[in-house]
Amino acid sequence: MPAIPDEHVVRVLRPFVAATGPVLRGLRDADPFRLGRLARRRALELQEGGDRTERLPAPTSRLGRLRRVLGSARSRLLDRLATSRLPGTPRWQAMSPEERDDWWVSRVGRFTSAVASVPGIGGALARRLPVSDILGLGAQGLVICAIAGDHGVDGRDEQVRLLAAVLFGRDVDPARHGDPHGADVEREAGELRGNVGAEREERGRLSALAHALWRMGRTLWSLQQELDRRPQGRTFWRLLANVPVIGALASYRSERSGLKRAARAAGQWVAREQGRTR
Questions:
Q1: Which helix (H) or strand (E) holds 161?
Q2: Distances in Å between the alpha carbon of 92 and those of 81, 101, 111, 222, 233?
Q3: CB-based burial of residue 243 (10 Å sphere; 0-12 exposed, 13-18 middle, 19+ buried)?
Q4: CA dihedral sign of residues 137, 142, 145, 146
Q5: What angle do CA 108, 39, 71 make, to 5 degrees?
Q6: pLDDT tens-digit profile of 88-114?
Q7: Which carries the bigger pLDDT value, residue 77 or residue 255?
Q8: What domain range includes position 244?
């Protein structure tokens, strides 16, 4: 008999799943350098007739030639952005679910490493808990839910089953344990996501996302007895993480490796489930 009842696993995972929507939207749309906006604007310009500067007569003055060279360099940079894998660009719309899986792993992985480098993200509690493990666990949960959504698995209890299977090796039946949209679930989900979605400035939005990631990882950390089964990084990096000085880098590499394994496991679970229903 498992040490933690299925009911408790479901009770922890449901608010997590309910909170992922706005957090994933925030991570997808976060654009601190406004590259996404530039890319979308350039894509529209290309659709409306391309680069008009190329059609102008060649300038004769030195200043005019310099301006033309700079304008051409800017256009080439924007063209690369317009064809990059950024949300809202034509390339994003044409990406396969598997390519978006890889994008999510990269996006969340980079954000997690940035959050882990901020001292005191979790306050006094962070000094008593393994920060990288908690953030890594939250990142795995977010990536799994993102992959589920991109593959059409968007029901809350379906995602709870997926999380339980990938993170804890548990086969749970959430339908036996209450309402996935109950008042308690919504209240706890609101506490997890905090101000995500309410901040207008980019800096405030990123701060809200960082704290949400910490809270979401911490709530999964409450299932400590089950954590040995979650996807882990390579043994080499896990051992190296215990070495002073280089341990922080090794810990990051370990969590990044574990994140990729979680993504693969989620994709395989979704493929099996969808194969059964066909």
A1: helix 156-168
A2: 11, 12, 19, 36, 29
A3: exposed
A4: negative
A5: 135
A6: 566 666 778 888 888 888 888 888 877
A7: 255
A8: 6-30+95-277
Q: What pLDDT, in 10s, does the model give residues 134-153? A: 888 899 999 999 999 988 99
61 found inside a domain: yes
**CA gap 171, 273 in Å, rounded:** 13
Cα–Cα nearest to 247, from 126, 116, 138? 116
pTM equals 0.75
Residues 6+ apart with CB under 8 A from 30: 111, 202, 205, 206, 209
| 123 located within any domain | yes
Structural domain count, the chain: 2
| Lookup: tokens for 149 | 């959504």
Domain contains 89: no
Q: Tokens representing 111? A: 């954000």
For residues 136 and 263, membership in a common domain is answered with yes
Q: What's the mean per-residue pLDDT of the chain? A: 78
Q: Let me know whether 235 and 270 are in one domain.
A: yes
- 175 neighbors 157 (Cβ within 8 angstroms): yes
